[in-house]
């Protein structure tokens, strides 16, 4: 991998978030991936629709091999991991071939630093219980605060 760079997203790059929204969908082994159009559903569009128009929209990207290979973004929204109206919800995704190389952890740590600098008190996310990323989230400071049959709601105190 040539020169990993983590940086804030440029406004001209915001459309790439639709790719990472799709990549963020957890697909268990042996399960057929959903059609790409699934990201057009309102409960998923909330993560990216009009991104960048609000002060609490923050996104960092990982660039490697001269392309964006991952994104980590937050916004305050009423999504699956919603806790309250002061807590941003966290989303992260990497293209498959860039996973398990520490890039996701680096993106998350960069975002957590940014949120601390902006005086947020916590950040939340939801993750399917079977998702291998649960361990990564715990390793950077997220804790399970609630759960349902399929998902954990996790938060990280900043």
From TrEMBL:
Q: Does the keyword Membrane apply?
A: no
Q: Which organism is it from?
A: Bifidobacterium gallicum DSM 20093 = LMG 11596
The reply on keyword Transferase is yes
One function term, GO molecular function aspect: acyltransferase activity, transferring groups other than amino-acyl groups
- According to the entry, every stretch annotated as the N-acetyltransferase domain falls at 12-158
Which InterPro entries does the protein's record reference? Acyl_CoA_acyltransferase, GNAT_dom, MshD_Acetyltransferase
Q: Which UniProt keywords are listed?
A: Transferase
Q: By what name is this protein known?
A: Acetyltransferase
> What's one Pfam family the UniProt record gives for this protein?
Acetyltransf_1
Q: Which PROSITE patterns match?
A: GNAT
Superkingdom of this entry's organism?
Answer: Bacteria
């Amino acid at each position: 991998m040539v020169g990993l760079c983590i940086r804030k997203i440029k406004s001209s790059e915001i459309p790439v978030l639709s790719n990472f929204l799709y990549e963020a969908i957890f697909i268990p082994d042996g399960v057929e991936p959903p059609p790409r159009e699934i990201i057009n559903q309102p409960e998923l569009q909330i993560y990216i629709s009009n991104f960048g128009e609000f002060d609490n929209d923050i996104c960092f990207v990982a660039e490697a091999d001269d392309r964006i290979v991952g994104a980590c973004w937050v916004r305050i929204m009423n999504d699956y991991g919603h806790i309250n109206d002061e807590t941003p919800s966290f989303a992260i995704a990497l293209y498959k071939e860039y996973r398990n190389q520490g890039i996701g952890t680096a993106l998350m740590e960069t975002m957590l630093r940014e949120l601390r600098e902006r005086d947020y008190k916590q950040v939340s996310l939801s993750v399917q219980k079977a998702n291998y990323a649960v361990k990564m989230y715990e390793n950077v400071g997220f804790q399970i605060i609630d759960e349902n049959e399929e998902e954990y709601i996790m938060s990280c105190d900043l």
